[in-house]
Amino acid sequence: MKLTLELTDIDYGALVEFALPLLQGKLAQSDSTAAQMLAKIAQMPPSIAAGMIDFLPQDTKNELAVMLVNQNKDRIIKAVTEYAEKKGLSFRIDSFSAEE
Predict the structure, then answer these.
(1) Does the pTM exceed 0.70?
(2) Is the Cβ–Cβ distance between 39 and 88 less than 8 Å?
(3) pLDDT value for 1
């Protein structure tokens, strides 16, 4: 079974506040321009960093969102699995990724 999830109206600021502290070390090592830009923003307090995201071009925000989701896929899979178990559902997520 393959499930596709399309997200719209993403709160990029909240996503950055949530995921940024987890990625600070990895960002500077990335070859991605967006990641390097985010690494600089990551040096700011999370609430300020989230506000800075609003000023980026939409394509850059999308690239950052995809990167943050992919970097946190284990946490996302765990959260979805735990939620499903609470609802009496049982399944295994073999893979999860995001792309633009």
Answers:
(1) no
(2) no
(3) 42
